[in-house]
Design a protein that fits this description.
The complex is a heterodimer of chains A (about 325) and B (about 325).
Chain A (H helix, E strand, L loop, with lengths): L9 E11 L5 E12 L4 E5 L6 H8 L8 E10 L2 E2 L5 H7 L4 E4 L13 H12 L4 H14 L5 H4 L9 H13 L5 E5 L7 H18 L2 E6 L2 H7 L2 E6 L2 E7 H6 L4 H8 L39 H5 L5 E4 L2 E3 L12
Parallel strand pairs in A: 3-8, 3-9, 6-7, 7-8
Antiparallel strand pairs in A: 1-2, 1-4, 4-5, 9-10, 10-12, 11-12
Helix pairs in contact in A: 3-4, 4-6, 6-7
Chain B lengths: L1 H28 L15 H11 L5 H13 L5 E2 L4 E2 H36 L4 H15 L2 H15 L18 H39 L2 H8 L4 H24 L2 H4 L2 H6 L5 H10 L3 H29 L7
Antiparallel strand pairs in B: 1-2
Helix pairs in contact in B: 1-3, 1-13, 4-5, 4-7, 4-13, 5-7, 6-7, 7-9, 8-9, 9-13, 12-13
Chain lengths: ~325, ~325
């Protein structure tokens, strides 16, 4: 699906976003994360809560609250610019224009005191320099694009007058209003019920094809990933543990954590009444275990895993794994 | 909206009558009478009793209440025997000073308190936030009678920047309108600052906590993700929401515009309603006391109605029908 010889649209290199707590602890929420996003593809990011997937994506447009957060290093190359080095004014020109966001909570992500239309018009007047009337027309068009019925009426309504699914469509309309190159969707359907979820996902896939936008799709729901993503990045404790295209991830996962996640899905073809689980909990990011962070929960744990942190290695073409014993077999290095 | 306002206006009537009834009851049970302050040694007890019978006949309080209502309905709100004038005229002479003083103080409080609160919230735990917090705690903790005397001592007595008392200088009593107005303003600066100090502090604390809550919300993150400048994010998206609880505070302050600042007016000898009501209590001048309180009750009831209407104006989620 993805041609790897193309230039990546977004390139993240060794990104480090840390949090400094009051008592001097350092939480490495994003620890040396590198990945690329190509034009028109959807990169899914999966992992348990607190694994750093949201902070990774928020860091892309410097949306992490600083302090307590701090960008300790790395590069984020988007549209030829390093997002961590550009001035505030340039950064604001990128936000909502080149890279835009859809957040998890549609109920609270829209400003309750402004009309829907105004909130969309704001991006259009800011980035595309439209006049008020033009922006108003364009806002109606944007709502129409996300299949909101009666857009002429909805522009004059307030967020509290819409349902959760409708609000998320408004968020999508707002995010896509300036034809961004990258759309970051941070668990956009988690707060919605299943039928609405399916509608919103269909809509996103359609729009992606129409507008050729690249999507960074964060979720902890593997069935959603299967439907949306071209490639998948699995994160654990602030690090990338596996990166491959979606078929490989589901058919030939190599990292024990990815295997655990896939095995934990409810399966209709099994007679067992119990769900498979990964033993243990996500470690405290300020007190990570020695060696591999997943070590204490891993079934293939050996001496070597307790001593050093494995590197992310390309074990097969375009299949990267951070493990000494990928698939349970000893690796040479 | 129209129906709502009419309904609320009708509700004011029973509440107003209830409060007046309680007022008459309390005054009836209070010790002393209009003649207890007459210290004339030549006055015999019989003469005192006769005078009392003439000024404040011994009727049951509900009877007095009813009489007052009937008279009020005819536009007669009682007679202040101390001032030899109808109550309404006495209040009318004093309310201007009070209104000017309280309004100036309120404007000072809002102009300083709200921006300071916003800065304090956006720079939480910074040096400026700590400084403003200490200042506002001082403003809240210092009683007006102390802060007032302190400022009077420093700025009026020692530095002689401002007059020590009154609302006009004796030399300007017969001056033209504009000279008088300037002199009034000059006399108001110090008391308005004293009164405004405590209010500034409470506006600042309210704004700060309200802003802190809003700044952390998801829609502020959305606003930043849209590429809006920090100024628009804070002063438009955040403040529009933080304003809602501040409107409540403002609603509470409206009756204060005419109730008068008892302490401040007394310290600076300003002829306002606050000072007038203290005198009315001391002299057992019941008609005046009832007149002032009736007016305040009405003002408070209308102010809460105005606050509720303002609510709907700032928060689209609130609709009355």
């Amino acid at each position: 699906m993805t041609e790897m010889n193309r230039e990546p649209l977004l390139q993240v290199k060794n990104l480090k976003t840390y949090f400094h707590s009051m008592n001097g602890n350092i939480v490495k929420a994003v620890d040396d994360v590198s990945f690329e996003v190509y034009e028109g593809e959807t990169l899914g990011i999966v992992g348990e809560s607190g694994c750093g997937k949201s902070i990774t994506c928020m860091s892309l447009a410097q949306l992490v609250e600083c302090p307590p957060g701090r960008y300790e290093g790395g590069e984020i190359l988007l549209d030829g610019k390093d997002m961590l080095k550009i001035s505030d004014a340039e950064l604001r020109k990128m936000r909502g224009n080149v890279i835009s966001y859809i957040f998890q909570e549609p109920m609270t992500s829209l400003n309750p005191v402004f009309k829907i239309g105004y909130q969309i018009e704001e991006v259009l007047t800011l980035h595309r320099g439209l006049s008020k009337e033009e922006a108003h027309k364009e806002a109606i068009h944007a709502l129409d694009l996300v299949r909101i019925p009666n857009p002429e009426r909805i522009v004059n309504e307030y967020p509290f007058e819409l349902s959760g699914g409708m609000r998320q469509r408004v968020m999508i309309a707002m995010a896509l209003a300036c034809n961004p190159k990258v759309l970051v969707a941070d668990e956009p359907t988690t707060a919605l019920d299943v039928t609405i979820q399916a509608q919103v996902l269909d809509l996103m896939n359609d729009l992606k094809r129409q507008l050729n936008t690249s999507i960074l799709f964060i979720t902890h729901d593997l069935s959603v990933i299967a439907e949306m993503a071209d490639r998948v990045m699995v994160m654990y404790a602030g690090k990338v543990v596996e990166l491959a295209d979606v078929m490989t991830i589901f058919e030939n996962p190599l990292h024990p954590y990815t295997r655990g996640l896939i095995a934990s899905r409810p399966d209709m073809n099994t007679s067992s009444n119990r769900l498979t689980v990964i033993p243990g909990n996500v470690p405290d990011l300020s007190a990570l275990p020695e060696g591999c962070s997943f070590g204490p929960r891993c079934g293939f744990f050996c001496d070597k895993c307790g001593k050093g942190v494995p590197e992310l290695v390309e074990v097969e073409p375009n299949h990267w794994v951070r493990c000494y014993r990928p698939g349970g077999e000893d690796r040479d290095n | 909206m129209k129906n709502y306002v009419i309904r609320r206006l009708l509700q004011i009537i029973p509440v107003f009558l209830g409060i007046l009834f309680i007022l008459f009851f309390i005054i009836d049970k209070a010790p002393g009478s209009i003649v207890s302050n007459i210290m004339d040694p030549t006055m015999t007890p019989e003469l005192k009793a006769a005078l009392l019978e003439k000024l404040d006949p011994n009727l049951p309080f509900y009877q007095k209440f009813w009489n007052w209502l009937v008279q009020a309905a005819h536009g007669n709100f009682g007679y202040s025997s101390k001032h030899f004038k109808p109550v309404i005229d006495v209040i009318g002479e004093n309310i201007g000073v009070t209104f000017a003083l309280s309004l100036t103080a309120l404007i000072i409080a809002m102009l300083i308190g709200i921006p300071a609160g916003i800065i304090s919230a956006t720079k939480q735990y910074s040096a400026i936030d700590n400084f403003l917090t200490v200042f506002s705690l001082l403003g809240l903790a210092l009683p007006t009678f102390f802060a007032g005397l302190l400022m009077l001592k420093v700025f009026a007595v020692e530095l002689k920047w401002f007059p020590t008392f009154g609302f006009i200088s004796s030399t300007n009593i017969n001056a033209d309108f504009w000279t008088k107005l300037g002199d009034h303003a000059y006399h108001l600066i110090l008391p308005a600052c004293v009164l405004g100090l405590a209010e500034t502090a409470s506006f600042m604390r309210y704004t700060r906590s309200s802003m802190l809550e809003v700044i952390r919300s998801d829609y502020i993150r959305t606003a930043r993700a849209k590429g809006l400048s920090e100024k628009v994010v804070i002063y438009k998206h955040a403040f529009r929401n933080a304003m809602i609880p501040i409107v409540t505070l403002l609603g509470f302050r409206i009756p204060g515009l005419i109730s008068g600042a008892l302490m401040t007016e007394t310290i600076f000898s300003l002829p306002g309603v606050g000072k007038l009501s203290v005198e009315a209590v001391n002299n057992r001048n019941y008609p005046l006391l009832i007149g002032i309180n009736a007016m305040l009750t009405l003002a408070t009831l209308f102010a809460t109605l105005i606050a509720d209407i303002l609510y709907a104006a700032v928060d689209p989620r609130i609709k009355y029908d």
